[in-house]
């Protein structure tokens, strides 16, 4: 069985820290919510904008990778990557069943807000650990989120 790169990278964690692992749980939950939200946005925007639909689909895939990486990080730190609350996304039902430009702009605004919040959360978590491996993983996530922001912002 082939191991994914984040699993190999996590072997260098200095020590288990279940308290810090617990601090990662909201970011883990956010990643799962992002998978659902971006998939939903991709599905609804596909008829109106293939470019935007493809971008949301890619962001969903990136969120899935981050979700897995965070889960592995939580395990490596001695925690349990459990989801404590059900997912909820606000439905964006277009009146005639077709997405509008306003709806697509809302999707973009929501996505930008969520990516910014995720960057802030990762930066906060960076300040709470001195483990170089954990910091490396979180810095990579910040870079990916900032890349997402650079792709999303011009489309608004």
Topology:
Layout: H1 5-9, H2 18-45, H3 50-76, H4 101-126, H5 132-152
Helix pairs in contact: 2-3, 2-4, 3-5, 4-5
Give the key terms.
single chain, 156 residues, mainly alpha, 5 helices, elongated, disordered N terminus
Output the number of helix runs.
5
Low-confidence stretches: 1-5
Rg on CA atoms, Å: 17 Å
Total beta strands: 0
How large a portion of the residues is in β-strands, by DSSP E? Answer: under 5%
The amount of helix comes to: 55-70%
Order of helices and strands: HHHHH
Query: Biggest sheet, open or closed, and with what strands and sense?
Result: none
Computed structural class:
mainly alpha
Mean of pLDDT:
86
Gross morphology is elongated
Distance between the termini: 42 Å
């Amino acid at each position: 069985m082939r191991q994914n790169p984040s699993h190999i990278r996590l072997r260098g964690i200095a020590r288990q820290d279940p308290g810090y692992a617990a601090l990662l749980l909201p970011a883990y939950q956010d990643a799962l919510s992002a998978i659902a939200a971006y998939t939903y946005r991709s599905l609804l925007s596909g008829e109106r904008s293939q470019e935007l639909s493809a971008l949301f689909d890619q962001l969903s895939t990136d969120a899935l990778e981050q979700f897995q990486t965070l889960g592995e990080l939580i395990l490596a730190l001695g925690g349990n990557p459990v989801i404590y609350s059900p997912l909820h996304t606000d439905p964006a039902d277009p009146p005639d069943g077709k997405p509008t430009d306003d709806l697509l702009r809302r999707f973009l605004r929501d996505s930008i807000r969520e990516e910014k919040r995720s960057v802030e959360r990762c930066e906060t978590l960076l300040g709470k650990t001195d483990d170089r491996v954990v910091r490396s993983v979180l810095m990579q996530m910040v870079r990916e989120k900032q890349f997402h922001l650079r792709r999303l912002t011009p489309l608004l």
